[in-house]
Each structure stands twice: as structure tokens, then as C-alpha cells.
TrEMBL record:
Organism: Gordonia lacunae
Record-linked Pfam families: Pyridox_ox_2
Protein name: Pyridoxamine 5'-phosphate oxidase
Gene3D superfamilies per the UniProt record, alphabetical: Electron Transport, Fmn-binding Protein, Chain A (2.30.110.10)
Sequence segments annotated as region (Disordered): 1-22, 195-216
Taxonomic path: Bacteria, Bacillati, Actinomycetota, Actinomycetes, Mycobacteriales
Domain of life according to the entry: Bacteria
Composition skew (Polar residues), residue ranges: 1-16
């Protein structure tokens, strides 16, 4: 089996499964939920024999991860040309407080997706989809992207292929029993009130980030 970029998948590879604490392995539902929640991941590859990695905004679109960057970035040209990559995402859900430093831990969700990036066939549509997943409704509020802006931007897709991703998570409190205080300090990401740099009233898409509509 091959990915969209032509790189063979190998479900028997040691990179395709957890070797430590395999009980923390997650399914595709965990992977999708994590990729839909997180906004930043780290793209990594090897350039001229040296490791290279950069944090990037991203969004999941079905069975692929959308990324974008400048056409002038040499490393992005390298991965767009078919260099193998990993994309890593991590969300911290809580600090686990134990009665010894050795047993302190964290509740988290993480994923590593491996593969080859494809250049998006329709860069404008990919960029709009990425923008609307990061800030829902924003695309309809701004002017269309110009040809010059599109020419300076590369939109990329990383296919999510079975055998080439790992998701894992830790939940719960510290292990063992203790008479000392132990517990979990939950961690979450929230949007604060926007800081205005120009204009008067923030657009609807921005206000919705801070005060989302209740879910029925």
C-alpha cells in the first residue's frame, strides 16, 4: 500500500506502534479529535543530513492535514518535492501531582503522522479551508486572495494513512495510594478578549472565537 505521495506504508515498522506503554495507544477517533482541536503542530524532516523542524498552523481536512507556507522557504520546497516528513501534535490536559517527584506526570494527547506531502491542486481552496477551520467564517469577511499572494504561498497536504500514524493519551490521576495530597491540575486553552489595532468593532468571526454559540 502507498500513500498519496507514493511512499510505501509499513504497518510492521517499529515506527508504526508504541513500544513503551502500548496501553496508551489511541484510535483514529482520538487522532481526528486531537487534530481538530489543536492549532499548531511541528513539521520535521532532514535537510542536507541535518534535522529540521518548525512549528506550523494546520487544520485537518478529512484524511489529510493542511499546511501552508512561503514559496521562498527552502525547507518547504524540500518537503514539497517529496522528502519524508513527520508532523507532531501535542495537547497538555493536566498536571498529575503525586507524592514523589518520580511519580509526577501529565495527562495529555499526542500524535505523530508520517508520510510525504502533496502540493494542493487548488491552492486557493486549500488556503480558504485552512483559514476557515482556524477562524470559522473569516474567509467570507475579507477580500479575495490576489494572484501575487497565491504565487508567494505554497499549500500542502499530508495524507493520513493507516500504518503511518500513532496517537496516544494519558488520563487519570497518579498511580498508587498515598495519605499525602495527590491530584490533577487541569489545563485548557481559551481565547481572551481581542486586542484592537485598527477599526472599531471586531468582526463576527473573531467575536465567535471569544464567545462561541452554545451547542444544542
Amino acid at each position: 500500500m502507498t500513500s498519496n505521495g507514493g511512499t510505501p506504508t509499513d504497518a510492521t515498522s517499529p515506527l508504526a506502534s508504541l513500544t513503551r506503554k502500548p496501553e496508551r495507544a489511541g484510535d483514529r477517533a482520538l487522532l481526528d479529535a486531537l487534530l481538530d482541536e489543536a492549532k499548531v503542530g511541528t513539521l520535521a524532516t532532514v535537510v542536507d543530513g541535518l534535522p529540521w523542524s518548525v512549528p506550523m498552523l494546520f487544520a485537518r481536512d478529512g484524511d489529510s492535514i493542511l499546511l501552508h507556507g512561503s514559496t521562498g522557504a527552502g525547507a518547504l520546497r524540500h518537503v514539497a518535492a517529496g522528502a519524508p516528513v513527520t508532523f507532531t501534535v501535542f495537547v497538555l490536559d493536566g498536571l498529575v501531582i503525586a507524592d514523589t517527584l518520580f511519580d509526577h506526570s501529565a495527562n495529555y494527547r499526542s500524535a505523530v503522522v508520517r508520510g510525504v506531502l502533496d502540493v494542493a491542486d487548488d491552492a486557493e481552496s486549500a488556503l480558504e479551508m485552512l483559514s476557515d477551520k482556524l477562524i470559522p467564517g473569516r474567509v467570507a469577511e475579507v477580500r479575495p486572495t490576489t494572484r501575487k499572494e497565491l504565487a508567494a504561498t505554497v499549500a500542502l497536504r499530508l495524507p493520513i494513512v493507516d500504518g503511518r500514524w500513532i496517537a496516544k493519551a494519558r488520563t487519570g490521576g497518579p498511580g498508587g495510594e498515598s495519605t499525602d495530597w495527590t491530584g490533577v491540575v487541569p489545563v485548557r486553552t481559551t481565547y481572551d478578549a481581542p486586542l484592537t489595532y485598527s477599526g472599531e468593532t471586531p468582526p463576527e468571526s473573531v467575536r465567535a472565537l471569544v464567545n462561541p454559540s452554545p451547542v444544542d
